[in-house]
């Protein structure tokens, strides 16, 4: 499987994402600058965390207009797997590829700690490799407070689009939401960082299952 890891000015988890899929998973990947305009030859897109364009206006609001975005939107609309983590999740909501928005944490503080997550939908292209329903991943964000209107929430619940929830909500997210997919299930956004939890040396390994699930889903589909 060949992943594109998108690099915006201000991304700071791009190398971690690359390390996770190449060094830990054994798949191939390429760091792709925000100025690129094509995703030809890639089977999956990883939008990493960070502070794209300095978080000016709102997190992800400027990245959403970068040259690579039309290609990402096309890729997603054709059913390609797209993962956005943290700032990547914010970019995906700004781009309209995922419903809702990320507000400031209710504490108005940047929160950096390990969190326990419940896998609320194990039957997705991002979670199928997990054999447990509870995992621990780190969070590191100032604007992770997920919001959507009640109708959208009900629709997502009915469609199984809520994939991860916090067991102890750290940021005020509606329905304890930590990660969601689009209705088609090929785009996932999540605030916790799976790429920071892929080897014992980092203290956590629960992120690996997510990348394994993506690789399996792509190989099955090919
Ligand atoms: N780690 C991240 O991607 C942080 C995202 C964003 N800059 C925030 O603070 O919410």
UniProtKB/TrEMBL annotation:
EC number(s) on file: 6.3.5.3, 3.5.1.2
Main location: cytoplasm
Cross-referenced InterPro entries: Class_I_gatase-like, PRibForGlyAmidine_synth_PurQ
SUPFAM superfamilies: Class I glutamine amidotransferase-like (SSF52317)
Annotated GO MF terms: ATP binding; glutaminase activity; phosphoribosylformylglycinamidine synthase activity
Subunit structure, interactors included: Part of the FGAM synthase complex composed of 1 PurL, 1 PurQ and 2 PurS subunits.
UniProt xrefs under NCBIfam families: FGAM_synth_I, PRK03619.1
Functional summary from the UniProt entry: Part of the phosphoribosylformylglycinamidine synthase complex involved in the purines biosynthetic pathway. Catalyzes the ATP-dependent conversion of formylglycinamide ribonucleotide (FGAR) and glutamine to yield formylglycinamidine ribonucleotide (FGAM) and glutamate. The FGAM synthase complex is composed of three subunits. PurQ produces an ammonia molecule by converting glutamine to glutamate. PurL transfers the ammonia molecule to FGAR to form FGAM in an ATP-dependent manner.
Designated name of the protein: Phosphoribosylformylglycinamidine synthase subunit PurQ
């Amino acid at each position: 499987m060949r992943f594109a890891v998108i690099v915006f000015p201000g991304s700071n988890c791009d190398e971690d994402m690359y390390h996770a899929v190449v060094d830990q998973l054994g798949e191939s990947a390429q760091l792709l600058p925000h100025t690129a305009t094509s995703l030809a030859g890639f089977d999956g897109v990883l939008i990493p965390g960070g502070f794209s364009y300095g978080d000016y206006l709102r997190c992800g609001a400027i990245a959403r207009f970068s040259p690579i975005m039309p290609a990402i939107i096309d890729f997603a609309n054709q059913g390609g797997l797209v993962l956005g983590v943290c700032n990547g999740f914010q970019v995906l909501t700004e781009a309209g590829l995922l419903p809702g928005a990320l507000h400031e944490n209710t504490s108005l503080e940047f929160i950096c700690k390990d969190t326990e997550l419940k896998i609320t939908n194990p039957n997705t292209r991002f979670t199928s490799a997990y054999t447990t329903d509870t995992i621990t991943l780190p969070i590191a964000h100032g604007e992770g407070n997920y919001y959507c209107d009640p109708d959208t929430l009900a629709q997502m619940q009915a469609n199984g689009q809520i994939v991860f929830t916090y067991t102890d909500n750290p940021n005020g997210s509606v329905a304890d939401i930590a990660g969601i997919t689009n209705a088609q299930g090929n785009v996932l956004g999540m605030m916790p960082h799976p790429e920071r939890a892929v080897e014992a040396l980092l203290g956590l390994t629960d992120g690996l299952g997510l990348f394994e699930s993506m690789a399996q889903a792509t190989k099955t589909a090919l």
